[in-house]
Amino acid sequence: MERHALGKLLAAGDDEVSAAALAALRSGATYQVSDTTHPAERHAGVFALRLRRMRLRGVEPLGLERMVQLLREHRRPVRGGLIYSADQKWTFLIYFTEDGSSLVGCARLQRWVEPSPL
To answer: Is the whole-model pTM more than 0.85?
Structure first.
């Protein structure tokens, strides 16, 4: 998927996470979008478990609960992707319809950075 096409899909999003992902993309973020599709329910189940674990650690990722709900409601195969912010602070999870024509859901996770050895 070309950068401008990804930007158009994110611009059509109606939430804070889509806007943040678009801002990251415009600020030089790197990204990847899968060519393969998988059942939306599989992704929803995996990220529902991860959300519970994150909450046990006191972490509330932006938009993850909503993304899980949207994936559950979608009930058709989705294409996934990732956006890595240029400042190395955030990773955005993005899901599109099977043909890549619409955004299904998006979430922002804080990136883990290995501590540098002393």
So the answer is: yes
